[in-house]
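Batch job 17 of 40 flagged for manual review because the log was empty.
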Amino acid sequence: MKDLREKTIRGGFARLVAQGLNFFLRMGSLMVLARLLEPKDFGLVGMVIAVTGVLDLLKDFGLGAAAIQHTNVTEEQISNLFWVNILVGAFLALMCVAVSPLIASFYHEPRLVKVTAVLGTGFLFNAGGVQHAAILQRQMRFTALAVINTVAIILAAAIAVGGAIEGYGYWALVAMTVTLPLAMTVGYWIAARWVPGLPRKQTGIRSMMRFGGTLTLNGLVAYIVFNLDKVLLGRFWGAAALGIYGRAYQLINIATHDLNLAAGEVGFSALSRLQDDPRRLKGYFLKGYSLVLTLTLPATLACALFANDAILVLLGPKWSAAAPILRLLAPMSLIFGLITPLGWLMCSIGLVGRCLKIGLVLAPLLITSYVIGLPYGPKGVALAYSIVMVLWVVPHIVWSVHGTPISLRDVLLTASRPLASAIVGGALAFGVRAAYGYSLSPFPRLMLESTVVLVTFVVVLLFVAGQKSLFLDLLSVLRRRSSVEEESLASA
């Protein structure tokens, strides 16, 4: 426990650096693929993923998180969990084959039969690595996890780009989707160096199954709700409209989602170790929360303010219809950046039931917003989505922190500093753009806007909002570890 702080900071740094690299890799592959493929290609794959993604929530049955959250886990328990994961993965792969004709019929698109069946193999590939990844997380080996994820993304992106160049169209995206879990599972096996034993009876995994089941049900509700917009748009507005909406959704969420995913791995592992120490739990959570907001808010705000330039530079002129959708989705992404870390807190202290209740209350609100916005197309859905999320944020925070060491005031005070700094940076960048930007072409103008946002944000956050000490403390831990490693190498 004494080196938990150092492991958390080093692991978080490794995952965030890797996530930054992964962000550029994903953006680079998206920029290339957007120019090689048509919106309809993305829409076809998006139609399937919007439906089979429901099954994706069942792929590990929450057993990876259960193995991490429990204080003590035996070798026999992990082996049994591994075989449960394999059975679930095989079942989901077969389920995709079985429902593929129904999906094709629903969308009136016969090509989706084969696409759905092939995408189903990803469930089996993923199942083989769930417990190996959990082992690495329990050991706080986040550098190894970061390397595995990055290599897998590079391999999957290379296959997709190669397939697109060769003229395989939407099959290039299918290949990318299936390659990613396969490459990651191979990497987890190599890094963990663990071979599961045969399944045994009475190993005491019932409590972990209950935890994982509740977590899975919560994820299932969330996925259905957060992807029903895409299903409805694909059904009533077609593949092209879904392709446009889907790319705007991906762009606005890529920073928030990916960084929260990376930070969440570290945060959940660390907070789970501190669930019996409320004082340290509070300190770890609030520092992590501040850091995550610092990394996600500037990008979200820049997308909202400079959506036209972002779409032109990143996707190209044929995607210009995505710009207003990107702008309308920005408030939704901002709210998710604020509330997602609260999920780590609740799950780490065993409040998965509360997570489920929150999801069940939010679900009908969002579904109603989709129905209201659907007659107006992608723009209407995006606007309604954002409005509901903005109205929901404070009740969500209050409910999430109730009965925990964290208060509403703690969350709002922690969030106010990076949020205010981002607003100041955005306002100054908008002014600079109005004064000088229109004489520039889209790429240099976007670089100017982004640089002003980032520099202003950092200066205000560190020297006006008083966050300098937090980041100096993080840097001191990283430097101290580097010095120890250098001394060890020198003595060797």
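Reviewer: the log was empty due to a logging misconfiguration, but the result itself is present. DSSP finds 18 helices and no strands in the chain. Unflagging and moving on to job 18.
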